[in-house]
Each structure stands twice: as C-alpha cells, then as structure tokens.
Specification:
The complex is a heterodimer of chains A (about 425) and B (about 120). Chain A has about 425 residues and is an all-alpha fold. Chain A contains 20 helices and no strands. In chain A, helix 7 packs across helix 8 and helix 12 packs antiparallel against helix 13. Chain A starts with 5 loop residues before the first helix and ends with a helix. Classes of the chains: A mainly alpha (about 425), B alpha+beta (about 120).
Chain lengths: ~425, ~120
C-alpha cells in the first residue's frame, strides 16, 4: 500500500494499534494515550531513521511500552498488575486476533447505549484517527464541546464495562445496522459539508469508504457490509457534479456525467452483483442497487426508472420512511407521468405528516406541477420548500427555479 | 462481579389497572424472577409515589429537616421499584433487564445504571 506521508501511515495504522492496546488493557483512554505517545516518537524517529519495515508492529511495540510505563506510574490496585502482565506478554499480531481487535473497537465505539453524535465522534477519533479539533470543525461545534462529548462517551463506556467482547451472534444484525449507520454518517458529512472539509487533513467521503471497506473485510460473510461499500462508491463517483461553480445543487438530470468516476462506478456495480448472489438482500443492498442504476445510466433519459420503482417498492417493505416514499414518487413520475407522481406524493403526505417540513417533498411537488403546466401551483410549492430548513446549496437551486417560473409565467402573460 | 441497578418506571395509568391485565403484568415479574434469578442481588417493589416524602436539611448537616409530601419530581412515569443485577457488562445487564415487564409494557421504561465499584 502506498502512503502519502508519515502522518497518513500513523493515522491509518492507528486504528489497529489502538484496537490491540484496548484488547490488552481493557482501557480505551490508556490505549489512546499510549498510542498518542508512540505516534509522537514515530514522527521524530522515522524522519531521521526512515520508515520501519512494518510500521504497525513498530507502533504497537512502542505503544505497549508506553502503556506499561503509564501503568507503573499509577500502580496501585491489583488490576493494574494484571494489566501489566498482559502487556508484558509477546504481542499477538496474528491476523485473526487483529481482526477481532478491530471489530471489538468498532462495535465499542458504535455501541447503541451511546448517542448518535457520540458514536460518530468516537469512531472518527479512535478508528479514523482524526484529532478532536478536526472532528469539531467538521460538525461546526467548538473544540471544547466535542472534547467533552468524546470524554463523556469514553467515561460511559468505562463505567458500563462496554468493550469486553464482540457482540454475540444473536446481537450482531442489530449492532451491525448501528455500525453501518455510523459509517454512512461519516460519509454523508463529508459529502455535504464543503466548509468543514477544508479544515481536516482527511476527506470524510474517502474515510467513509475506507471504513466501509474495513468493515466488509472484517465481516466478509455479511452482504449488507459489501452493499455499503457499493452504495458509497457509487455515490462518491458522482461527487464532482453534486454542486456547480455558483455553489448551487445540481440535479442528477442535469449533471455532466462525463465527470463521474468510472472506476468507482464499475467497482460498485461489480461488487453489488457479486453480493446479490448471496441471496440475502437487505435495505443497504437495495439502496446500492438504486445508486448503481443511476450511476450506470449514460443520461437521465437512459435511466432504468421502472427497475428503480421496483427497488423502491422493495425498500418500502423492508425499510419504509418518508424519504423512501418521496423518492419512489419521483421515480414513479418518470415512468407513469407527473399526475401519478402527484398522487403518490399526496399518499406520502397522508402517511407521514412530518414530510410537510422537508424541502425536497415540496420541491418534488413543484416539479410535477410545473410539468403539468400549473406554474402558479409550482411557484407556491417552491415557496413552501424555501420555508423549510435546508442548506445553502439547495437554497440556490430552489431560488433559481422559482425565478425561472416567474420568467415563464411572465412570458405567458405577455403572450395572452 | 459488577452490579447494575435496573430502575423501574411505570406509566401512571398502570397502577390503576385491575383484572386480567394486572394479573398478566404481575405474572411477568414472577417470570422475570425465573429468568434472572441467578443474577438478582437485591431489589424491592415500591408503594405508589403518593406515599413518598422528599426531605432536605436546611442550615447544614445538623440543621432542620424539611419535609415535602410526594416524590422529588412529578413525572409522567413514577418509580415503581428496582432490582440490583449482577452482570459482566451493560449488554449482560440489558439482556436480563429487558425481561422486566415495565420494559415491554406500553409507556413503561427501565433505566439501567452501573453501581460504583468500591
């Protein structure tokens, strides 16, 4: 594997080292601190002496020594002595042990007893190796706030003795779903926050993909894990056209598809096809299929909309939500026309009152009404969209479309 | 082995119930005793919180006892009882506590918290 810098090596190996130290000591903070000191030593040592043959083993050995030193400084209770003995034993870096260590760390950071925010922050810190400063910047909170959030999360884990083991088979599906959602938040945060991005060394979209690959590698028999890699790759492939030069959102229909990453798309499709053969389809694989169909199509017109509608029907059965329902309506309109789309949206509104506060629901209505020639209705819907919470990127697009309607209706008035 | 307390929060409507629903609910506690018995280190059912008295002492440790009729906080749910459970970790405690009837009953909640290790 090629690394850009010592910094990157340390960050990438860090997750494994912390995981191993955590297993050996049972203490997250000790593992993190010991690794931190080893990292400092690595920077100075490697710059003058060059890279070791196995940086991960080097870091683990040094971190282990640091942990022992820290324990000796605090040696009081008998548990510390047990820990010291465990640390003194030869380091087991067998691939299965490392794999188990990493899984234990990920499941610990993503424990459902922690809040959503705490899980994401802890994963970024312990598994991805971002600094607290960087995590704070990405989520637009003060460093002190993020620091407290992470400290509290670690304290809760310690008090409740979470992290002793990997979830039992019976618990795995539910726990895996939680981990998957954390991975997706990491990716989506990178996908959606251009300002936050500038303040980290790390591209969170790439980090999300890396996490997804790590998880799929650790749990190769779980199709949903491979589905996640496919979903993120096919989404990342389109990122160059997500926003235009003016900072306005660009719809799939208007995107310059030549700018999409063909390698990511090909890999996503290939991976998904292999995964689907396992015959254990879940919501993530379904969403990956939808994303791949979009990425695969050479144009909006060439998109296999009927297939996409069917996939949304499946998703409605296994993981229904207002978002799924609205997206299904949009796909349905492509197959059966704007009237069918409007009827579908009416049904969504009847089932999910919360959809009133989602700007994209109103934007979809606006588009269908526009296609049917109801420019007044379309304008009202866009006004409703702007009233809902939304980000700058979508705001620009909404206002552009609203302005375009004024021009259109102005023109038709003149014609009369 | 570590200990966790499971605090039982019940919806106010609950205690008013009579008849077969109440019987089923109480049977749930007997069943819980069967499931978790090996891990139960203590606990008690509490009388309803209209029997509660909240106190504080003014003027320092040796000052005057002030009593207030009722629980500390008037909440939608009231504290109905607790168990002290022995478990390796939170997941182990929750695997037991989920069988407490308040956990699966409408409007009920069980709060699980580790005890301080002395």
């Amino acid at each position: 594997m090629e690394y850009a810098s010592i910094d990157e090596i340390i960050r990438v190996e860090g997750g494994r080292v912390v995981a191993t130290l955590f297993r050996m000591t049972g203490q997250l903070e000790l593992a993190e601190d010991a690794f931190g000191e080893a990292a400092i030593e690595a920077v100075t040592h490697w710059q003058s002496e060059g890279l070791p043959e196995r940086p991960g083993a080097w870091l683990t050995t040094v971190a282990r020594r640091k942990a022992l030193d820290m324990l000796r400084r605090e040696a009081r209770r008998p548990e510390r002595e047990e820990m010291a003995i465990a640390l003194a034993a030869p380091v087991d870096l067998d691939v299965h042990t490392v794999r188990d260590d990493q899984l234990r760390l990920i499941f610990t950071a993503c424990h459902p007893a922690l809040s959503d925010e705490a899980r994401v922050a802890l994963t970024l810190r312990l598994v991805c190796g971002l600094t607290v400063d960087e995590i704070a910047a990405v989520f637009l909170v003060p460093e002190a706030t993020m620091s407290k959030r992470i400290t509290r999360a670690k304290a809760k884990l310690r008090a409740n003795r979470i992290g002793l083991r990997i979830p039992l088979d019976g618990e795995l599906p539910a726990r895996l779903a939680v981990v998957s959602s954390v991975v997706e938040v990491v990716f989506t945060t990178g996908h959606h926050s251009p300002t936050g991005q500038a303040l980290t060394r790390v591209d969170l979209m790439d980090e999300g993909v890396r996490l997804a690959r790590l998880l799929a590698g650790l749990m190769p028999d779980e199709p949903e894990c491979h589905g996640m890699v496919s979903l993120l790759l096919s989404t990342r492939a389109r990122q160059a056209t997500r926003v235009d030069i003016d900072g306005s959102a660009v719809l799939l229909a208007d995107a310059d598809r030549s700018l999409w990453d063909r390698d990511d798309i090909d890999e996503a499709i290939d991976l998904l096809e292999r995964t689907l053969r396992a015959g254990r389809v879940g919501p993530i694989q379904i969403r990956a299929a939808i994303s791949c169909l979009h990425s695969h199509a050479s144009s909006a017109a060439d998109t296999d909309w009927p297939q996409i509608v069917q996939l949304y029907d499946m998703l409605t059965m296994v993981a229904p939500s207002p978002i799924v329902a609205v997206n299904r309506a949009v796909a349905l309109a492509e197959v059966e026309g704007a009237t069918a789309g409007l009827e579908a949206l009416d049904a969504v509104q009847a089932s999910f009152a919360s959809v009133e506060r989602w700007h994209l629901f109103h934007a979809a209505r606006a588009e269908f009404l526009r296609r049917l020639g109801d420019l007044r209705g379309s304008a009202d819907a866009l006004d409703a969209a702007v009233e809902c919470p939304h980000n700058d990127v979508d705001d620009r697009l909404l206002r552009q479309r609203r302005a375009a309607l004024d021009l259109a209706s102005g023109a038709s008035v003149e014609a009369e | 082995m570590p200990e966790f307390v499971a605090l039982i929060w019940e919806p106010r409507a609950a205690r008013a119930q009579q008849g077969p629903d109440l019987v089923e609910y109480m049977n749930g506690y007997t069943a819980f005793g069967g499931i978790a018995g090996h891990a139960i280190r203590g606990g008690a059912a509490l009388l309803t919180d209209d029997t509660a008295t909240t106190i504080h002492v003014t003027g320092g440790q040796h000052g005057e006892v002030v009593m207030h009729d009722g629980p500390y906080a008037e909440t939608k749910e009231f504290l109905g009882g607790f168990y002290v459970l022995e478990a390796d970790d939170l997941d182990g405690a929750i695997a037991l506590a989920r069988h407490i009837p308040a956990a699966w009953r409408d409007g009920g909640r069980v709060e699980v918290r580790p005890t301080m290790s002395m």
